[in-house]
Design a protein that fits this description.
7 helices; about 45% helix; alpha+beta; 4-stranded mixed β-sheet
Length: about 160
């Protein structure tokens, strides 16, 4: 096989760019996080440490996986909040956090009791923390998270 044919085959196999393959994205539970937020980095590490089943993959909101996924959505989505994609649905803010805890299982599932609080109230607390996160936790200038996580769990 000549090199041009090989490159075409790789492009159609999504070899170098798995996030371009719709079934790859559909079959993953992806946590989208702000790559410049230290609190977000800590949250990703926390999820990774407690995700004993290896359910979650992680991708920055500034990355190509996010751009590819949101191109197909009819409604605009914000990049100011954590986003969770379960293969079918994209949720943000407090719903994303609670869905992640629910999927983590064991004792973490108990935190979903906060669903009893109206979403508007939960999101108001989320928004307050999000507005102050750089003041409280500083901005992450250099991205070191990808270097610290297993390559199989990180998407671009």
């Amino acid at each position: 096989m000549d090199s041009k044919a090989k490159n075409i085959k790789q492009a159609t196999d999504y070899g170098c760019y798995p996030y371009m393959n719709p079934s790859f994205v559909r079959d993953r539970r992806i946590v989208f996080y702000d790559n410049h937020c230290l609190l977000c980095h800590w949250s990703v590490r926390f999820i990774l440490d407690h995700d004993k089943k290896g359910l979650f993959a992680f991708a920055p909101l500034q990355g190509e996986t996010w751009q590819h996924l949101t191109k197909s959505l009819a409604t605009p989505v914000t990049m100011e909040a954590v986003q969770y994609f379960d293969g079918k649905t994209l949720v943000d803010k407090s719903d994303a956090v609670l869905n992640i805890f629910q999927q983590m299982g064991s004792g973490w599932r108990l935190l979903t009791i906060f669903r009893m609080i109206p979403r508007a109230w939960r999101n108001a607390v989320y928004d307050f923390i999000a507005r102050n996160r750089f003041r409280w936790f500083r901005r992450q200038i250099e991205c070191s998270l990808e270097k610290q996580l297993p390559a199989s769990r990180i998407l671009d």
